Amino acid sequence: MVSTLVIFSPSRTLQPSQIKTSAPSDRNFGILKEHSVGTTHDNREVTKFADIIFLACKPYQIQDVAKEISADLSTERHLVVSCAAGLPMINLESVSILNLIRLAHTYS
User: Where is the Pyrroline-5-carboxylate reductase catalytic N-terminal domain (predicted)?
Assistant: First the structure.
């Protein structure tokens, strides 16, 4: 699955050690590793690590990623932010992601 999750724990000052990202290959990890950002190929690992989760993948991948991580999400702990363009909220709500924010780019 081709996807990326960028995840961090909230604090007043965010340190690289508080950020973890996931992707299927190491191709985009170089610069992140240079800055001591955690990397993995396991989306569930980053979900267990973080309180705030950014789903930053292609719209056609988002439901698979959401299904993969949904068992590890807690409504008391997690906030999920979808960055996928053109994807209705109902697509993510159908896989039990309740604390969800959708970022949308608007053109003026």
Answer: 18-86
